[in-house]
Design brief:
By secondary structure, this protein is α/β, with parallel strands linked by helices. It folds into 2 domains: about 10-75, no CATH class; about 95-285, Rossmann fold, CATH 3.40.50. The protein contains 10 helices and 6 strands. Helix 4 (about 105-115) links the parallel strand 1 (about 95-100) and strand 2. It starts with 10 loop residues before the first helix and ends with a helix.
């Protein structure tokens, strides 16, 4: 008969199918397939009864690898994000300034900092009415944590405006702990179409502005011995992009500025982040 439900092979049938195997292993296969399976099963059952897993010297002390990985993942993965409650006021979240912080990525950063309990100052260059409304909305969130918010107008491409803005933030809130260099513009043209003003304007806002703000903020951070500087760069600074030679150069320059800041002021955690394309007002040219 062929292989049955129990995996037993008839030697005669095996011989008919393959005469070369007849009489050589049929009986062995028939006996071992049945006897070894019963013996192994009985041994495992007897061992399980006589020696529980918690007392078995052959069992590892740690949990099963799969269970261990799941538990480790659960510990390393935070629970669902929640904004701190108004009761979470025991920690001072510091004072942060976000350039270009009234809309787009900058506005999202400012709102996130406010929900974390920080005092937030935002910079803007035009449309004072919209900036004041944004600051008022931000203040309502900040007041829940005993913090405050303010808006400061200035041209990031001007060294004098950058120094004045940082001085205003320090005078208003008493100190500056976090600087987010987010302000940026685009003037997209091919290399042959870019004018001198197109080139210099983008670099003045995106790169020189970050330098001037960092320079002014770092003076206050050095006095306090602590601080954080985050430069919002772009993936275009790493890869380049057609029609964005000026923008790519400015964002690539932020990498070098960030590394130098980190080396010159080791206590200051200087970082750069590289967002990809988004539907912000800057990307739309507004």
């Amino acid at each position: 008969m062929p292989i049955g439900a129990k995996g037993v092979v008839d030697p005669a049938e095996l011989g008919r199918q393959s005469p070369r195997l007849a009489g050589r292993g049929g009986a062995f296969i028939n006996q071992s397939a049945d006897a070894s399976s019963r013996t192994g099963l009985h041994r495992r059952r007897a061992h399980k009864v006589a020696c529980p897993a918690s007392q078995c010297p052959n069992s590892p002390a740690r949990p099963h690898p799969t269970t261990h990985r799941k538990r480790r993942h659960a510990r390393s993965s935070p629970p669902g994000h929640r904004h701190p409650r108004a009761d979470d006021r025991q920690a001072d979240r510091g004072v942060a300034f976000v350039s270009g912080g009234t809309r787009g990525i900058g506005g999202a950063i400012a709102r996130s900092l406010a929900h974390q309990g920080a005092t937030v100052a935002v910079g803007y260059s035009r449309n004072p009415a919209a900036a004041d409304q944004f600051a008022a909305d931000l203040s309502r969130t900040c007041r829940q944590f005993g913090a405050s918010a303010s808006a400061h107008q200035g041209n990031v491409g001007s060294a004098a405006d950058c120094r004045r803005t940082i001085a205003e933030v320090v005078d208003t809130h008493g100190r500056l702990d976090i600087l987010i260099n987010n302000a940026g513009i685009t003037i997209d043209k091919t290399v042959t179409e870019l004018t001198d003003d197109d080139w210099s304007t983008v670099l003045a806002v995106n790169l020189s502005g970050a330098f001037f703000l960092s320079q002014a903020a770092l003076a206050h951070m050095l006095d306090r011995g602590t601080g954080r500087i985050v430069n919002v760069s772009s993936v275009v600074g790493e890869t380049g992009n057609i029609g964005q030679a000026n923008y790519a150069a400015s964002k690539s320059g932020l990498f070098g500025l960030t590394k130098t800041l980190a080396k010159e002021a080791a206590f200051t955690l200087a970082k750069s982040c590289c967002p990809s394309a988004d539907r912000s007002p800057c990307s739309r040219g507004d």
